[in-house]
Design a protein that fits this description.
This protein has six helices and eight strands; from the N terminus they run βααβαβββαβββαα. By secondary structure, it is α+β, with helices and mostly antiparallel strands. Helix 2 packs across helix 5 and helix 2 packs across helix 6. The longest helix is centred in the last third of the chain and has 24 residues. The radius of gyration is 18 Å and the shape is globular. One of its GO terms (biological process) is tetrahydrofolate biosynthetic process.
């Protein structure tokens, strides 16, 4: 499987700059290193770790009213690369202007092969982490509205069909929901590289940005190390 890094979102909150897409050589280099070094089992571990570390280290920047941390997966494969990236940029702009949301972090945009129905263009995928005051139902309604606003029809022609914009709710705090119309965490997050790789990249960016405060990072690392160790011990005891 070959992954190609496309123009990427910024990895920090765009507080003042209107430019949501960058072509930073250092960002491409770091992402390529991750893609080369990542292994399936480490990516699955890092996906859990990325979400939790993002929740902890970014929480201080959140509006107190925006108490819920959510992770959205976005994807599209209809249109040119420039059109899709611009669509993603407009989506970020819409979320940034929404008074109920605070944009926390974004991943690079990855160009990757489709799954399920493979006779279609490659997808562009990315991950967005937000803080929000919206409930699960309100967030689901917002996602539904944004997909339609950016050209997605009410019904797909068939399962895994090409699309102008797909927005998946990957995580909503630690909430677990299983309904006919909504599953949280997203049912495919453990197996889809389009989720695992961007989350892994975001984790590394957060840890690097916290290098000036190693104590905070080491506490988070210690927490996850202890949790994983305790789970391993429990399994071995059984």
């Amino acid at each position: 499987m070959r992954w190609i890094l496309a123009p990427s979102f910024p990895t920090h909150t765009p507080r003042t700059s209107p430019h949501y897409l960058t072509h930073a050589a250092t960002l491409r280099y770091q992402a390529q290193r991750i893609l080369q070094q990542a292994k399936p089992h480490t990516r699955i571990h890092q996906s859990h770790r990325a979400q939790a570390v993002l929740n902890r280290t970014l929480h201080k920047r959140i509006n107190p009213k925006h108490r819920h941390i959510i992770t959205l997966g976005i994807g599209a494969n209809l249109g040119t690369k420039q059109a899709i990236c611009q669509r993603f940029a407009h989506l970020l702009g819409s979320l940034t202007r929404n008074k109920h949301c605070t944009l926390l972090a974004t991943s690079p945009i990855l160009h990757n092969p489709p799954f399920g129905y493979t006779n279609q263009p490659y997808f562009y995928n990315a991950i967005i982490t937000l803080a929000t005051s919206l409930s699960v139902v309100e967030l689901f309604a917002l996602v539904f509205y944004l997909e339609r606003r950016f050209g997605r029809g009410r019904k797909r022609a068939f399962k895994n069909a090409p699309r102008t914009l797909d927005i998946d709710i990957i995580f909503y705090d630690k909430v677990i929901i299983k309904r006919a119309y909504l599953t949280i965490p997203h049912h495919g997050f453990r197996t889809r590289d389009s989720v695992l790789l961007p989350l892994d990249f975001m984790l590394r960016q957060v840890l690097e940005s916290k290098s000036t405060n190693p104590q905070g990072v080491s506490r988070a690392d210690l927490y996850f190390h202890r949790r994983d160790t305790s789970r391993s011990s429990q399994k071995s005891a059984r």
